[in-house]
Amino acid sequence: MTATLATLIDNTQAALSDTAATYFSDALITAALRAALMEVNERAPIHAGDLVTVIADQKEYEVTDFDTEAIAVLDVLKQDADGEDDEPLTYDAYTEDARVFFRLREAEASGTLVVRYTQPHTINGLDSQTSSTVQAIHDNTLVMGAAYHACIIRSVSRLEANNYNKNVSDNYADAAKKYRELFEKGLSKMAAEQVPVSEPDTRAWNDEWHGWTQ
Fold this sequence. Notes:
Layout: H1 5-15, H2 26-43, E1 46-53, E2 60-62, E3 72-78, E4 87-88, E5 91-96, E6 99-104, E7 112-119, H3 139-157, H4 166-191
Antiparallel strand pairs: 1-7, 2-6, 3-4, 3-7, 5-6
Helix pairs in contact: 1-2, 1-3, 2-3, 3-4
């Protein structure tokens, strides 16, 4: 698991050559880490899964009922306990009142559903979180993302009317570009991680439901 908030702050300040926190305070780096984590969760959230017991003839299920951190539904399958060839089911996912749901096109009579969905990464110590979920190998991605956002924040902060040296803001903006390149490389690697697979989906793009919303 990744480092705690305190460690990530120290590592980011070190990457910015400001271990004394003269220009990049703990509060500033915390804000920058929050922004970096938001991007991580947009591009490479946690891929989670759970088993849900079928309720006979019920089509609608709430994902946030069994995982309050769920963001979006990725797939719903009928579990094959013997052959492990889970059957993809046709469903519609939606949110209502900040809760995540899916509705099966056809209700199941019995069995178990395999529900795959995403949930956000957290950093231990950030916004009252008690665990860090990003893999340790991606620590540096968070650090580079925080360094990028920190430079952007510093650049903006130097735009006051009494700032007589425009080069200060420009230098921060230039540094931000370099950190952004490293952040993007890390994000790409995180987003490229493989997700679970099961029985290949044989539903055609032009099946009976194609264009039903049009």
